């Protein structure tokens, strides 16, 4: 069974030949892994560790043609990014400081024009030949109306808007959703990915709860999600998956109502548990993830890893579940990840009626 057959069968809640795997590797982990396992420098860890899912990404930013450096010296750089924000970055710093945003009030939404979603350079990574030869199940990706609105408005500003000016927040989310819909449809077309589909990346949760109340989600974001999923599926996408960090369980009924087929990464550190969710929702939702990359994989014993992996594998026997962690960073020992991988490949093999131990 190919990765594509395996993943799509899982998403249809049918039993595949083995549980699908989806992990993404930080470059620091990749370098450490290649060194410790004495692998060739050009080793593709996705292939080495039997990763079944790949995501291809367009440039969905509203203003890519207007990004520019405004000032630079030894202390850092001030620039206008392609989200329309003025930001300051420091040398060797991962994060940036937000100085100003392009959208300050509702009237700005009427006067500001986004760059065309059909610009060729947005899709430079969409190589049809790569799709024909890549052994993974490939999906395209867009962002979602919450996080992409926060990129344009400023995250703190947008959270204030959600609480204090929901009409403005909804107007911005709708405008962003309209843009994302066109990016998504063009991604599906250029990548010829209708028979797999599209992932929406929209981090909406902390480890404790969603970043907005369910009532705010229902009023501001649910209509946009419904329009997005309907547009993508009407364009031909077979499946639409939602990636969101954190505890989004209070929003799941509405996420299912919007037409989402699966969620990722289903983080245990945020209180999400695949066996419990699957028992609650049945075949209304599929799950991709479930492994803890905060405690179990970095610090757990081999037995801890086996216990968590095994409960996910048990849920996957009749489909609807793929296993993985949010991401694999340098804090995860190579020996731990290797043991996890070998355990999953052995015990997650469903061919010939193999029993799970």
From the structure above, extract its key features.
single chain; 357 residues; alpha/beta; TIM Barrel; 7-stranded parallel beta sheet; 4-stranded antiparallel beta sheet; 15% strand; globular
Give a short synopsis of this structure.
41% of the residues lie in helices and 15% in strands. The protein contains 14 helices and 11 strands. The strands form 2 sheets. It has a 7-stranded parallel sheet with strand order 1-6-7-8-9-10-11.
Account of the protein in words:
- The chain is an alpha/beta fold.
- The chain folds into two domains: 3-63 and 104-353, Alpha-Beta Barrel (TIM Barrel), CATH 3.20.20.210; 65-101, no CATH class.
- The protein is built from 14 helices and eleven strands.
- It has a seven-stranded parallel beta sheet with strand order 1-6-7-8-9-10-11. Strands 2-3-4-5 form a four-stranded antiparallel beta sheet, with no helix packed on it.
- Helix 6 packs across helix 7 (155-164) and helix 7 crosses helix 8 (166-191).
- It is globular.
- The two termini are 23 Å apart.
Task: Indicate the structural class.
Answer: alpha/beta
Specify Rg, calculated over alpha carbons. Answer: 21 Å
pLDDT < 50 stretches: none
Beta-strand proportion: 15-25%
Cα separation of the termini: 23 Å
Q: Would you give the CATH topology of the largest domain?
A: TIM Barrel
Shape: globular
Tally of extended strands?
11
The largest sheet is:
7 strands, parallel
Strand order of the largest sheet: 1-6-7-8-9-10-11
The CATH class of the largest domain, by name, is: Alpha Beta
Number of structurally distinct domains: 2
Rounded mean pLDDT score: 94
Q: State the order of secondary-structure elements, H for helix, E for strand.
A: HHHEEEEEHHEHHHEHEHEHEHHEH
Provide the CATH architecture of the largest domain. Alpha-Beta Barrel
- The DSSP helix count reads 14
Helix content: 40-55%
